[in-house]
Task: structure prediction
Amino acid sequence: MLPFWIALQFLSSLPVRLPGMPEPEQLGRSLLFYPLVGLLFGGLLWLLNTLLLGAQPLLHAALLLTAWVLLSGGLHLDGLADSADAWLGGFGDRERTLLIMKDPRSGPIAVVTLVLVLLLKFTALLALVEQGQGVMLIIVPVLGRGALLALFLTTPYVRAGGLGQALADHLPRRAGWRVLAGGALGCVLVAGWSGILALVVAVGVFVGFRRMMLRRLGGCTGDTAGALLELLEMAVLVAIVLV
Result:
């Protein structure tokens, strides 16, 4: 189970301590457990949603969003901010885009992007609370982290060395596709037609954003992976409450 603990430590702010430095093969296998980490997040959010039933809807939604952000420690929001700055400031140039993504500072476009994404997530969560669609709190985190697995299965990693390269090089690909298929089936079984809609939207966002990465960078980075997760979760939540 070490690959699961590696995935949980990397993707969450939960107090997970590993026994030592993982081997590259274990890092690669940890990607297979990303959807399971999403399921854990979803279960915790669903439980919080149940405990908050009867609370004032605005506060209910705000607490759900706060818990959602805290569970991941803002990791993917940081990637979204860096990607937003780089995409605008890179002026279409690959090397400039990669350089800006390494800069820890955030510019105005990063702040605006974070505000808009969190605002859309909050209002979508508010609508979910009012519509009683708490089951989607389980589905969406699974789809978001499943998208990370799909990204590493299908897209070159453009920064040589480091954790991302180890993940990409040692990912068991056949097992990865089986995990994705199982996760997709689980979403449909749990949420029915809403699960199918969520899958369609998630695939659409994944394909579109992956194409942008390939055109600009020739592949993905850790920051663009985080941006993909945040935008995909936001899009699925919004789509569910609009349809």
